[in-house]
Amino acid sequence: MPQTPPKLVVLDRDGVVNLDSDQFIKTPDEWIPIDGSLEAIAALNQAGYRVVIVSNQSGIGRGLFEMSALNAMHEKMHKALANLGGRVDAVFFCPHTAADGCDCRKPKPGMLEQLAERFGVELKGVPLVGDSLRDLEAGLAVGCAPHLVLTGKGPKTEKKGGLPPGTLIHDDLRAFARWLLTGDGAPRQAGS
Ligand SMILES: [Mg+2]
Ligand SMILES: [Zn+2]
């Protein structure tokens, strides 16, 4: 029997949900939502979608900030979302640096495999929204549908090219959610 994907959306964090910085997001004060992103998550929730974040946080491995700061950022995010009637069901993060050679740091699919196991779902066809190629590559390994947003590193990522076949490009998370929920605002296909 053909399987329909679970009503689940996987998001990268920095550059998708909140503004990114080359200096890393190290404190709750530096964690600033992208305009419309939290409303987009709430709209997805209201349509029955669970939303999960999968994020590389090598700033921890580099000693730039502590776990307590990461928890405080996510506390801020959860509170802001709750005020809008939205929620993120889980945040998976990789604290390692590239030099650690772990299997969770994207583009490796380790965090997505953890997510599939914890939620008891197959991720085939589940939309994964990212602003970097490595987000989409990690998703590709487990069959996620790749979506690039043009916030954060998105414009640079699009310019570099080499996106997975079938990648759809949206202005931001708000545009992605509107497209997923209503079909409005046709996204561009990578390479076209
Ligand atoms: Mg990112
Ligand atoms: Zn890792």
UniProtKB/TrEMBL annotation:
<dbReference type="GO" id="GO:0005737">
    <property type="term" value="C:cytoplasm"/>
</dbReference>
<dbReference type="InterPro" id="IPR036412">
    <property type="entry name" value="HAD-like_sf"/>
</dbReference>
<comment type="similarity">
    <text>Belongs to the gmhB family.</text>
</comment>
<dbReference type="GO" id="GO:0005975">
    <property type="term" value="P:carbohydrate metabolic process"/>
</dbReference>
<dbReference type="GO" id="GO:0034200">
    <property type="term" value="F:D-glycero-beta-D-manno-heptose 1,7-bisphosphate 7-phosphatase activity"/>
</dbReference>
<comment type="pathway">
    <text>Nucleotide-sugar biosynthesis; ADP-L-glycero-beta-D-manno-heptose biosynthesis; ADP-L-glycero-beta-D-manno-heptose from D-glycero-beta-D-manno-heptose 7-phosphate: step 2/4.</text>
</comment>
<feature type="site" description="Stabilizes the phosphoryl group">
    <location>
        <position position="55"/>
    </location>
</feature>
<feature type="binding site">
    <location>
        <position position="131"/>
    </location>
    <ligand>
        <name>Mg(2+)</name>
    </ligand>
</feature>
<feature type="binding site">
    <location>
        <position position="104"/>
    </location>
    <ligand>
        <name>Zn(2+)</name>
    </ligand>
</feature>
<feature type="active site" description="Nucleophile">
    <location>
        <position position="12"/>
    </location>
</feature>
<dbReference type="InterPro" id="IPR006543">
    <property type="entry name" value="Histidinol-phos"/>
</dbReference>
<feature type="binding site">
    <location>
        <position position="12"/>
    </location>
    <ligand>
        <name>Mg(2+)</name>
    </ligand>
</feature>
<feature type="binding site">
    <location>
        <position position="14"/>
    </location>
    <ligand>
        <name>Mg(2+)</name>
    </ligand>
</feature>
<dbReference type="InterPro" id="IPR004446">
    <property type="entry name" value="Heptose_bisP_phosphatase"/>
</dbReference>
<keyword id="KW-0862">Zinc</keyword>
<dbReference type="Pfam" id="PF13242">
    <property type="entry name" value="Hydrolase_like"/>
</dbReference>
<feature type="site" description="Contributes to substrate recognition">
    <location>
        <position position="105"/>
    </location>
</feature>
<keyword id="KW-0479">Metal-binding</keyword>
<keyword id="KW-0460">Magnesium</keyword>
<dbReference type="InterPro" id="IPR023214">
    <property type="entry name" value="HAD_sf"/>
</dbReference>
<keyword id="KW-0378">Hydrolase</keyword>
<dbReference type="GO" id="GO:0046872">
    <property type="term" value="F:metal ion binding"/>
</dbReference>
<feature type="active site" description="Proton donor">
    <location>
        <position position="14"/>
    </location>
</feature>
<keyword id="KW-0963">Cytoplasm</keyword>
<protein>
    <recommendedName>
        <fullName>D,D-heptose 1,7-bisphosphate phosphatase</fullName>
        <ecNumber>3.1.3.-</ecNumber>
    </recommendedName>
</protein>
<keyword id="KW-0119">Carbohydrate metabolism</keyword>
<feature type="binding site">
    <location>
        <position position="94"/>
    </location>
    <ligand>
        <name>Zn(2+)</name>
    </ligand>
</feature>
<feature type="site" description="Stabilizes the phosphoryl group">
    <location>
        <position position="106"/>
    </location>
</feature>
<feature type="binding site">
    <location>
        <position position="96"/>
    </location>
    <ligand>
        <name>Zn(2+)</name>
    </ligand>
</feature>
<feature type="binding site">
    <location>
        <position position="102"/>
    </location>
    <ligand>
        <name>Zn(2+)</name>
    </ligand>
</feature>
<comment type="subunit">
    <text>Monomer.</text>
</comment>
<dbReference type="InterPro" id="IPR006549">
    <property type="entry name" value="HAD-SF_hydro_IIIA"/>
</dbReference>
